[in-house]
Description:
The chain is an alpha/beta fold. It has helices spanning about 10-20, 25-55, 75-85, 90-110, 115-135, 185-190, 235-240, 260-265, 305-315, 320-325, 355-370, 385-395, 400-405, 415-420, 430-440, 450-470, 500-505, 540-550, and strands at about 110-115, 155, 195-200, 245-250, 265-270, 295-300, 335-340, 375, 475-480, 510-520, 525-530. The protein has a single domain (about 70-325, about 330-390, about 450-550), classed as Amidase signature (AS) domain (Amidase signature (AS) enzymes). It has 18 helices and eleven strands. α6 links the parallel β2 and β3 (about 195-200). It is globular and about 90 Å long. About 50% of the residues are buried. Bound molecules: 2-acetamido-2-deoxy-beta-D-glucopyranose. One of its GO terms (molecular function) is hydrolase activity. It comes from Dermatophagoides farinae (American house dust mite). Keywords: Hydrolase, Membrane, Transmembrane, Transmembrane helix.
Amino acid sequence: MIKNSILDPxxxxxxxxxxxxxxxxxxxxxxxxxMASIYIRISRCFLDGLMDITGLYYWTKRNQIPPITNPxxxxxxxxxxxxxxxxxxKCETLVRVFIDRIKLVNPxxxxxxxxCFNDAIKEAKEYDQRIERALNxxxxxxxxLELPLLGIPITIKECIPVKGMxxxxxxxxxxxxRVKEDAQVVKNIRKSGAIILGVTNVPEFxxxxxxxxxxxxxxxxxxxxxxxxxxxSGGEAAIQAAAGAIIGVGSDIGGSLRIPPFFCGTFGxxxxxxxxxxxxxxxxxxxxxxxxLLVNGPLCRYAMDLKPLYKVIIADxxxxxxxxxLDCPVDLKKSRFYFLYEDGDSFxxxxxxxxxxxxxxxxxxxxxxxxFTCIDAQIPLMKYNFLIFLTTLGDCDxxxxxxxxxxxxxxxxxxxxxxxxxxxxxxFRKITxxxxxxxxxxxxPQTRHKRWxxxxxxxGKQLGEQLDSMLEDGSILIMPCLPEKAPKHSGxxxxxxxxxxxxxxxxxxxxxxxxxxxxxxxxxxxxxxQIIAKRLNDRFTLAVAELLAKEFGGWQPPCExxxx
Length: 564
Ligand SMILES: *[C@@H]1O[C@H](CO)[C@@H](O)[C@H](O)[C@H]1NC(C)=O
């Protein structure tokens, strides 16, 4: 009991005393812990109920997205690049189809926040000329036909610097800032032949798990406009789900390449730590020691596009390319598939029946149809995932959030700012002010030297060791990405601890792929889960994602498809 509790080590003597000296000590402790657990579960029900009641303010708005009428909108990037390369499809045509679609859907979902459509059309025309020359004259030396993403429209998360575009990270104080030079990952994207159409919406300071800020406003979920798209790559996932884009680049420090694609029914891959170049991302993760938590990565509507885009993202890093060896064939017959249906924390929202059933469907397929070994995972420390993430985040001399949020010019005066924001007079969101207030109340730079704090950090290390040995030889862990579908716009505050499901894997530095499994029977919203492997085994999670997408169909459109 002591071993698996987060009780302050200074208090452990009480437990030991009861166990050894009090008659029926063991049983008494068991009863106390059961009662605590029941109490926590009841509190959770109450908080979820409270969030659902406030959610009534936002009327459900389904079936709002206009129908898809052009078949080009429904092809994978890989297929489209094959067509542009062989001259069957003009890059300009392709780019214009996606621009028109963005113009049609974006007013509803507010996903693309700044565009460069004119430049995109110009670039497409230039590619078309080069392609035509290269195809018609064998003497022309131009490697344009080798470009992996030739003429493919792409969008980029606003926090990643794209020349000429804003890079506010959702901060109002940066609203007039324009980027002078592409980030390295954007340079890689351009070199691949992809054509950037614009940048996509993010939360304020990328801080929260819904996408809303005072520069651009809120992004909305294409399946139900009253619900969130998730964060922080929320604009990216929403525009892909609404068929306004097929591939894009996002970033992830606690779930941002998994939560939005989960809520919007698309795919995302969080790379192993230290593989992708994050230079220039705004906000920066705050401290050198946190860099291992932050990654850039691919977001795609179709699973098979994840790998080619991932390869482009890391193209400048030969060491990473060699370590990951993404094209090395994967033999899943040797892998064990561990399933975890719930993390065991009573203070999180219980995993919905839709998600549970989705996990079981995948298991049935992998076990019965593919003949793979599937096992129920036992990971007792997993229930502390959110605490492990928060303590790890705080375990360095980084400036406090209250300082970061004003770009290190002083410190946010959180209470007055919160009151101002209640009356719509603040440049900051309420949620941001509340986060700073919580930080002031709970955390100070001395906190991390307390014994209970070190204990939680150690638990994270133990969890990492356990998973590392469990996931030897290309084995896989499959578990919920979050316990339930996208909440209403007002429903995020009291449920933020649910994000522990995703954020712990940033601490553990492991690769994770979010897999879309279509639409839930009951919720009528996208369902899916995450696939985890040992660090550097990215190719395994990607292979399983492709396999499942092929079997179950992956993304399902949020609207009618009317193609003649
Ligand atoms: C990742 O990089 C950080 C420095 O940013 C370093 O401390 C850490 O050891 C690296 N992790 C691995 C597994 O290489």
